[in-house]
Each structure stands twice: as C-alpha cells, then as structure tokens.
Amino acid sequence: MDQTYAFLMELVKPRALIFSFVFVGALTWLCYQFSTKITRGRVHGSAVAIVVGLILAFVGGMLTNGKRGIADIPMFAGFALMGGAMLRDFCIIATAYGVRMEELKKAGLAGVLSLVVGTFVAFVVGVVIAYAFGYRGTVDLTTIGAGAVTFIVGPVTGSALGASSDIVALSIAAGVVKSIAVMILTPFLAKPFGLTNPAAAMVYGGLMGTTSGTAAGLAATDPRLVPYGALTATFYTGFGCLVCPSICYIIMRMIFG
Amino acid sequence: MVIYGVMILGLCMFLGTAVGLLLGKLLGIPGDIGGVGFAMLFLVFLTNWLKGKGMLPKPTEQGMLFWNAMYIPVVIAMASIQNVVAALNGGLVALLAGIVSVVVLFPLIRILSAMAGAATSSFGDEEADAPAGAQPKKA
C-alpha cells in the first residue's frame, strides 16, 4: 500500500497540472453522461460538474483541514494551478474574443448602475442579517456586510477598520457562501429571471459580482453569456474594496454611532 | 502561428491588469480594480482592429479559441479548490448573508436589463449553433 502510494506520487507529483487536466476531463465526461442520461438534459453537464467540484472541495477540506479544497491533498495539488486565479483570469479574458462591441456599448451604463446597486444591496443584506443575529458593533456590522459583497471585500474592509479575526473569518465565510450560492442557483434561476441575453448577463455580472460565482454560474447556464457577465463582475470586487471601508462605513457610523 | 494568439491574450492580460493595479494605487485600495475587465476590453478592440487589417489568420485565432474553450474545465477545477468547509462552518449568519444577498438580487436582473436594451440584445449567432465565443457573423 505504502509502495503503491509512493509510486503514484512519483508518477503524479512532477506532472501535477497534467494530472488535473486528465482528472477534470474524466470528471467532465462522467458529468455530461449524467446530465444527458439521468437528468435528460434538464441540468447542464457543466452545472453537474461544478457541483461535483464543490463536493470534492468539501471532501478535501474535511480530510486535510486546509483552505484550498481538494488541492490540499498532495495528489491533487495541480488543481491549485489549473483552477487558480491566473488561469481562471486568462480564460475569462479569452472568452472576450468574439464579443459584440455594440452589446457592450448598449449595456454599458446599465452595467455600471447594476454594479452600484449590487454592491449596496449585498452590503445592506449582510448588515441586516448580522444585526438580526445580535451583532451591534459598527465595525463588526460593516465587516460582515462587506463579506456579503465578496469574500475579498470582507477581509479587506475588516483589516482596514481593525475588526477582530473571528469577525473577519465570518465575513469570508459569508462571501464564500455567496459565491457558491451564485454557482448553484444561477442555472436554475436564469430563465425565469430573464438571464438569456448579453445585456442581461452584463447586468447580472454587476449585481452578483463574485468573479468565481458568476464565472461558474454562467458557464453552467449558457457559455455564450460568460464574457458579458464576467466583464462587469471583474469590476465588482475592486469597487467593493473602494466603497465598503469608506462610504459604507461612514454611513454606518451615522446610523449606529 | 498559434503562439501569436496566446501572446495577444497575455499582452492584453498584462495591459489590463496594469491599468487595474494603477487605478487601485490611485484610489488607495489593495489589489486591482477591474484588471480583467480592462484586459477584455483591450482584447475586443485589438482583435477587431487586427481583423480589419486582415492580420488575424486562423492559427492565431486558434491560439485564443483554445483558452476560450478551456474556460469551463478551469472553472470546474476552480470549484474544487473553494473553501467549502469554511463556508459551511460559518454558521447561520454566513449562510443567510451569503444566500439572501444573492436571492434578493435576481429579480433586479429583468428591471435593469430592460434599461440595458435586453429586448434587442442578441449573441449575433442565433442561426448557427456556434460554440462559445465564436466570431459573430457581422461584428
């Protein structure tokens, strides 16, 4: 057993990225089979694959107590590179090839507006829920609200305002829940809520914001929507980091003292 | 050559991220503001310009389309490295804050996208079952 493991590690470890390509390829095939045969095409193959990916992340986290899901299992270390921010952003940029410029121009203003609305609504929801659960400190409320914006805005705001580490951890958890919720809910809610065209995708990107959430949510809905949604979503975290520790905090101080 | 396409993608990524990082520094926030978004805009303008000049041959295009097609596999890998355990351990506050902030925003899509011209919005490739990011017929 130990020898088999050592052999496998010798085989896989220096080729970690290639191993992740092979593994994701096999997983994708299985999930697309599941999608067509079991769900009869009702659930998109990539939606199934993304949910399975999240389950793998959960298993990895439980086994290793790490923060990077399955990538903390040595055999799967290549996933950190394949699914990391560098390749993700590179592929997102590549999806912009073939985007219709007139769509970008037409939806530009609404895209900006949705960015502002999306940030403030998420912040307010986070604050209201934290307040309902008994949090009263202005810094705590602001940090948790910022976490509902994205899991990057939460800790950035928390450290700017000097929040305690458990509140920062809570804000990160809220942000991660949000991004997972976007991944899972988008394919189901897309049609009834009109997310079927480039203009709606730009608005959606601005409203939801979380880059990983919208990236996966749109991929599981209709890959043609991806570039439009990603374009506005990539401004969201930066915008949140800008307004949460400043404007939002000032308003919070006026309300809660 | 295929590498030219990959190079164009990479150049746009560096240009866009540089703009995003500088914007972040100007506004005094850590990280970049919309670096990927600026990179996407650069790519749209640059490839349209090159196409107009007839300087975007098939192999170059293939270098970009490969990474375009790798997007979903990369996203699946991304899902599998999320900190799902932390998300579930965050308790009810984290769960509710995360989920409610998504659910309340979905109804706004229709309202705001009506403003964005959703009625006339299209991918431009409706007649053909083209793959993601395929070049629209008349861009």
From TrEMBL, chain A:
Pfam families: MadM (PF03818). The keyword Acetylation does not apply. The chain crosses the membrane at residues 16-35, 47-64, 76-97, 109-134, 141-161, 167-189, 201-221, 233-252. The keyword Magnesium does not apply. Keywords: Membrane, Transmembrane, Transmembrane helix. InterPro entries: Mal/Na_symporter_MadM, Mal/Na_symporter_MadM_N. Residues 9-256 form the Malonate/sodium symporter MadM subunit N-terminal domain. This is Malonate transporter subunit MadM.
TrEMBL record, chain B:
The gene is madL. It holds the Pfam family MadL. The keyword Membrane applies. This is Malonate transporter subunit MadL. Keywords: Membrane, Transmembrane, Transmembrane helix. The chain crosses the membrane at residues 7-27, 33-52, 64-85, 91-112. The keyword Cell wall biogenesis/degradation does not apply.
